[in-house]
Structure formats: structure tokens, C-alpha cells
Amino acid sequence: MSEIELEDISKSYGDLQAVDGVDLSVRDGELLCLLGPSGCGKSTTMRMISGLETPTAGEVYIGGDNVTDQAAYDRDTSMVFQNWALFPYKSVLENVAFGLKMRGDGSEERQQEAREMLERVHMDGYEEYSPTDLSGGQKQRVALARSLAVDPDVLLLDEPLSNLDKRLREEMEIELKDIHEEFDKTFVYVTHNQDEAFTLADRIGIMNDGRLVQVGEPSEVYRNPTNRFVEEFLGDTNFVAGEVTEAAADYARLATDFGARIRIPPFEAVEPGVSFTVSLRPEFMRIQRSDEADTSEAQTARADGTGGDTVTGTVENNIYRGSMIRYVVDVGGEQLFVEQSVMDQTGIEEGEQVELGWNTDDILVFHPDGSRVRGA
């Protein structure tokens, strides 16, 4: 196993700054996902780890060695590409044995190792097949076997499941997690798919505009995002803007454009007239018919700043999303949405008057520039 250290690495292509001052530590044996939208610099960062790209500035260390100027073939890494990059004119066995041949292993030895690796990824029996005769999931397993056969300290995976359908992708996510545990290697995995990252990763590094904006365990980055970009990228949420109308030692309130007054946790320097945006995640919100709602908690909140908040509105749409139902609710001209498990559904229909509620501890507060308000 090898740890990876990136020290202030950057990569530019003329006027395009693809990666800008990234510092990152990947621990021995962990599976770290680089997650972000297309064009954010995550694949370029991986290619600098592999040696396929040379940093414009900064240094790359693998296992304590400075490999910044080292060729890709001299690094103890192997890569699985998005399009699998299998040789169509070679058999499955020959594809897996290819790296061993380049390493100088003898014919009998490399064939034996290739067969053993195919068995470990559940592809034994396919040795003489052509890659063109395989399904997408089978090609992915062969590509993994080829990369793992050379026994690298670091395995790099660049969007390896993006060409698979949803069901097969979910199956391969579990396979990859099992393979990581079995082989006990350091994995760096690039993806734009949040579900993949949360399923696979020990830690997630989130990138945007060439910068690494947050690194942490999946639960940490989801519940404690460093800025609005992370909060928005990791899942749907309701962003509500407002201006502080009152502030006390134990609470403050925002007046919103649609007439609601949202209580936010107190924090240093909050004062009337300052603007903020709050995030109300749909899975943390409650929904019930207005005529069934107990308003005593909301009345208490409005009186002294304690308890939870509520707003009333009209259901515009019910959207069934498999195990979840999304309610789109018009609140004073603003659309808010709530998600509820189908097991907990209340049978609320379009056109009904409802009350939405949430706990103050579940909201996040952001400055106008998108940075997170700390202490809130």
C-alpha cells in the first residue's frame, strides 16, 4: 500500500486553468473518491497522480517518493479507464496478461496469474472470449483484472461505471467495494455521480473549478458542507433567501420574500439588515394537512424563538420516485419540496392545503458569497 500526497499541484493548458493549487493526502489503503461536475479538474488531477500529465506547478508523492517528473510506466500505479481500453484483437486472457508481459514475466507465469485474477473477479471461463463478445459489466471486470494483475500499490479508476446502466452500475459498485477490501490497495476513484461516491468511498474529495473545496467522510460532507456549492451538488435542497429582522442571544429570524419568518441558530455578528440564504433539505422537512396540524409548537416559536418553524402552502405536484414521494408545494409564490418515504405517505393530494415544518437544528446558513456561516 502507498499513501499519496499532492502538494499545491496545478495544471494549465494555455489560458485554461484545469487544476488550481490542490493539496490532498490519500491514506494508505483507503478508497478516496474525487467527486465533482464535468470539467472541475478531477480527471486531470488523477492523470497527474498516474504520470499521464505533468503538473504545471506543485509536487506529487507516492509512498514518500517524489514522482512529479517520473514517467507513468515507472510509477507503481495502474489505471482503469472510462471506456475500459481493452484490446479487441486479443482474447480476455491476453488482455489481462498484457501488463505482465510488458513487465517481463514469462509466458507460463503470466497466463497462470491472469487466470487467477479472472477467477477473483468472477470471469473464469471467459479466457478465450473476445472483449467484443462481452457485456459492459463483463468488460469492466476484465479491465479491473488487467489493472490488478500487475499488483500496483495504487489503483486509479476514472469514471469506470459511467457506461453501465443503473442496475449493473449498482451491482458493480458493491463488487468494487468488495475488491477494494480483498486486495487491500489504495484506490483513487473519479466520478461525477454522488450515489457512487457515497456507496464506495472511505472519504470524498469534492472539486469545483479546478479547486479541492472539501475532503471528508461521506456523512461529514453531507451533513457539514463547507459552502453552498457542496450543499447543492450533493443533493436537492430548498434554498431560501432572507434578511435578518431580529436577533437575540439565543435565536435570530430571517424575513423571506414569500412572507415566512425563518428562525436560524444564533451566531457571532448576526444583526438586523444582514442577508443570508438557508438550506432546507427535503428529507428533514415534515408535511401534513393544514386542518390536521398542531400549530401550538409554531405559535410558541413565533412568540419566543423556541421550538420549530412552519409555513403553509398548496400542493402543486406529487412525484413518485420509487421509494420516495416528492411533494412540490407553493408557499406564497415560492416552490418548496418535501420528500417522504412511501411507507410514511399520508395520502396528501394535489390542491390540498398543507403545513410544512422543520427543526432549526436541521437548517444550514450561507453568506451571499456562498461560504458557510460557522456556528450556525
Description of the structure:
The chain is of the alpha+beta class and 376 residues long. The strands form four sheets. A six-stranded mixed beta sheet has the order 6-7-8-3-9-10, sandwiched between helices. Strands 13-12-11-14-20 form a five-stranded antiparallel beta sheet, with no helix packed on it. The chain has a five-stranded antiparallel beta sheet with strand order 15-19-16-17-18. A hairpin with a 2-residue loop joins strand 1 and strand 2 (16-26). It has nine helices and 20 strands. The protein folds into two domains: 4-233, P-loop containing nucleotide triphosphate hydrolases (Rossmann fold); 238-366, Beta Barrel (OB fold (Dihydrolipoamide Acetyltransferase, E2P)). It catalyses: tungstate(in) + ATP + H2O = tungstate(out) + ADP + phosphate + H(+). The complex is composed of two ATP-binding proteins (WtpC), two transmembrane proteins (WtpB) and a solute-binding protein (WtpA).
